[in-house]
Amino acid sequence: MKVVACYSMKGGVGKTATAVNLSYWAAAQGLKTLLIDLDAQGASSFYFRVKPGRKRWGKRFFQAYETLLEQIRASDYEGLDVLPAHLSFRNFDALLASLEKRKSRLRRILKGLRREYDLIVLDCPPSISHLSEAVFNAADLILVPVIPTTLSQRTFEQLLAFFADKGYADDAVVPFFSMVQRQKALHKTTMLHMRQRHKGFLQAVIPFARDIENMGEHRAPVAVFAARKPASKAYLALFDELWPRVRPKGKKR
Amino acid sequence: MSASAEAHYCLPQDCRPADVEAALGALGHVDFASLRREQLDVVDNFPGDIWADGGLLTRTRSGELCWWHEGRCALSLQAPSEARFWWEVPASPLREQLQRCIGLWSLMTRASVGLARKPLVLRNRDDKIVVRGEWCELAQMQTRFRVTALRGYAAEFARACEALERIGGTLVEPLDLRQWLGTSGLVPQGLELKGPYGIEAGEPAGAAVRRMARSMFELARRFEGGVIDDTDSEFVHQYRVSLRKLRSLLTLMKNTLPPDLPARAKGELARMAGAMGTLRDLDVFLLDQERYRQMLPGPFQPGFDALIAQVRRDRQRALSATRRQLRSTAYARRCDQLLQLLDAQPEYAAEAADKAVGRVASARILKRYKRIRAASLRVDASTPDAQIHAIRIECKKLRYMLEFFAELYPRSRLKTLSRALKRLQDVLGRFNDVSVQQGFLAAYAGRSQDDAQRAAIHGLIAVLHQDQLGLRDQAETELQQFAQDHVAANFSAMFGRNGA
Ligand SMILES: Nc1ncnc2c1ncn2[C@@H]1O[C@H](COP(=O)(O)OP(=O)(O)O)[C@@H](O)[C@H]1O
Ligand SMILES: [Mg+2]
């Protein structure tokens, strides 16, 4: 089982859009997939039309994976389950106050799910916090959407600096360009420049697309309502590129 | 994802999809997909061996084969629509099952079931799917509904189940297609190739033997259609086997029958089989052609191709002759005569006609075994092949006797003896086959004008001769085994005066 986090300290860069579409493709390609919506705002849950239970169960999130299992919902798509966000997830930082907990809690909880799932996708809230540290410890890959602008470039480099500072290996960090507008000269030059400075950028690029914006209206992954459109293909290409790193042992496509 | 919970309901006869829609509609928005009709063919060989073995093989119109085991489709694959023999199915576990179950027979459709399916989803206020289901109509005989729970939506599942119960649905086990087919009466009875004949140990031998003869003859006649249609090579084979067994029965039980009956019946039978012997020899060669081809090095291949072409032409001729014969009035007359002969009240009782059939059979079996044993003990390296062949024929008769009267003996003990005999017969049979094949090929070589073809044939004969030498050694060993004291003791215990 592999854990992939969609992470950025900035909001509105396409983390949720990526988490939703990536998990859809993973399931469609035969991976038993669980999308965990860690963002109390619940955008991923909204896209999949799942609502959390009424109980404020967030305070027990890190106690035992059985608690998590009770909250999981089947999505409308074969092989894809969703753990919807709850408002009480806002308090995760308090629960992860000690360094020891940040290091091991989330990782241990997710391990309990490996019998059921091939892939876990985490949709993270935009912040650099105790929760994000727990995510860095638990994830095999940290997918970082980067809008090719000067400001985003700065944010990305801050993240790398944070990793260096904490002594995390940065090879788990996998950046890719998000909301790309090819006609914008700034986007083009920034992409060129950043690819030169940082090796690990994915080849796959997610364009700025009307169809992605429209997910809110359809409440479904892009492939469901715009299967043949470039936006849908872009997410499949992203998954294809990640495949060698998320592939369960012995599994073929 | 843990295995999702399912509930299966049997719905009342008059229940329509609209009734289900209305019942579930109270819980949310119901989306019924359009009705999908499919035709499921139950396929099997002519005797119905798959079905008799407790199995089930189905084929959809699109060519998907499915092997059912314990109520589910355990093996499936897409097969070419013209695939009829196991070797025409792509290599797979399913093909191995087929090979084991249907032998050289072709597959045919033995029953057809119309299935109508209509999948459904139930959505909540957010338009999220909370329950899945499927309406299924079986051959317009039964209507079922399957409800599938989705993780995290247990309450909705429970409510859907209650709704189905309110419209008269009864909770049932998941559909076991084989079991259902069994009770539906859609699958016809299979064919028993080896009895039982419904005889009892104490009844008079004469009457019992005539009844057995009659059912063997009826069995043979059931293969005529497949011979005429040239459905597959097994029809000719089984037709001949049935008649051969019938002849053996009449000979072996001769003294329970009126003195002229066996001879007269056998005369009719010999004429009935007619050209089929030739047809069978050619079939055997063609069935084995790939093996022969592999025995020959590359340069012989063109000659071998010519030989195959020749054999195919000869087979076509033999088939035409057979068809003419089976359709002739002379054949029909012969069949009637044979039946009259078997049915006629004997003018005077034969020597053993009124003895208990069990006693007569046991005595015959034991005598035959003793004869084989004595002959086997005399076999050594200097024994001529002809003598080995004579023993083989005796063994075959013994095998027939054990098969004919099997129902009179305890099955498990009979099995032990049959197994010992079978091992011996396999070796003797192969020993005989290679010498028959050499003769068959030599006849072709004698007729052939073509040097390449003759070279190929002589090549094959040489290889077969090597095989024969090896088999001869094996035959001697197996004969010794079969003559051992403990085998003899078993035969005596079972068929002697004080036996079963
Ligand atoms: N590639 C894209 N093209 C156009 N709009 C996008 C794209 N990716 C995301 N959006 C839109 O931008 C907004 C923020 O995206 P989201 O994925 O929620 O970002 P995050 O999770 O990083 O906050 C949403 O309204 C989304 O529909
Ligand atoms: Mg988000």
Structure description:
The complex is a heterodimer of chains A (253) and B (500). In chain A, 44% of the residues lie in helices and 15% in strands. Chain A is of the alpha/beta class and 253 residues long. Chain A has a single domain (2-246), classed as P-loop containing nucleotide triphosphate hydrolases (Rossmann fold). An eight-stranded mixed β-sheet of chain A has the order 3-4-2-5-1-6-7-8, with helices on both faces. In chain A, α1 (15-28) crosses α12 (230-246) and α5 (99-111) crosses α6. The relative contact order of chain A is 0.19. Chain B contains 18 helices and ten strands. Helices cover 57% and strands 15% of the residues of chain B. In chain B, strands 1, 2, 3, 4, 5, 6, 7, 8, 9 and 10 form a ten-stranded antiparallel β-sheet that branches. Chain B has helices at 17-25, 49-52, 93-102, 154-166, 177-184, 205-221, 224-229, 233-252, 261-273, 276-287, 289-295, 301-327, 329-343, 357-378, 385-404, 411-447, 451-482, 485-495; strands at 6-11, 29-32, 36-44, 56-60, 64-69, 72-78, 108-123, 129-138, 142-149, 170-172. Chain B is α+β, with helices and mostly antiparallel strands. The longest helix of chain B is centred in the last third of the chain and has 37 residues, at 411-447. Chain B has three domains: 6-184, Hypothetical Protein Pfu-838710-001 (Beta Barrel); 192-352, CHAD domain (Alpha solenoid); 356-500, CHAD domain, CATH 1.40.20. The complex binds adenosine-5'-diphosphate and magnesium ion. Residues 8, 11-17, 43, 126, 178-179, 206, 208-209, 212-213, 215-216 of chain A line the site of adenosine-5'-diphosphate. Magnesium ion is lined by residues 15-16, 39, 43, 123 of chain A.
